[in-house]
Amino acid sequence: MARPRSFEPDEVLDLAMQLFWQKGYEATSVQDLEAAMGINRYSLYNTFGDKHQLYLACLDRYRDRMVAEMTCGLEHGSEGLQAIRDFMNAFRGKAPDAMGRGCFMVNCAVEQSHDDPEAASRILAHAERLEAAFLAALTRARASGELGSEHDLDDLARYLVVATNGILVGVRMRQPLDALDAGLRMIVSQVDSWEQVA
Questions:
Q1: Can you give the CATH number for the domain in which 161 is found?
Q2: Domain count, the chain
Q3: What is the pTM of this model?
Q4: Long-range CB contacts for residues 128-131, cutoff 8 Å, separation at least 24
């Protein structure tokens, strides 16, 4: 008869996610994971599969928790352009705490996307979700009259994804905070320029 687990899978998955997020996939060993998660190799493999399966589960966990929280205002809010400004300005407050770590999905894209089709599919889905979230806010801005018909909403949404990912790569690279802040201000200024004057 199997012994009951003495740990909560979601809790130890969060610990694994933090480790992969900090060190990357290749630099994280199974021994590192055992130590960080506080479980032995048997429990790790029995619950999550091998290291790669655990990594994919961590990407899914990040998507379901972190990304969902980050995009909530864009996807479900009532604001249009202001939701985008709020999203960008939120990075300004979080950047000091995120220095050297960046975004788990963006880090994965840099490290794994060329060699790992399963990770690549998650990265693509993440980019598509972010684009759809920006598009939802832009569509609300168009409907409310904030945004004129001269703008292609799909192009604006794609621009915002690329700009956001650029900032996140800069965070990972530990670029100076004033440089990141300048980049974010420029993105917000660009959003401001789209607003239709009444």
A1: 1.10.357.10
A2: 1
A3: 0.87
A4: 129/63, 129/67, 129/71, 130/67, 130/71, 130/161, 130/164, 131/157, 131/158, 131/160, 131/161
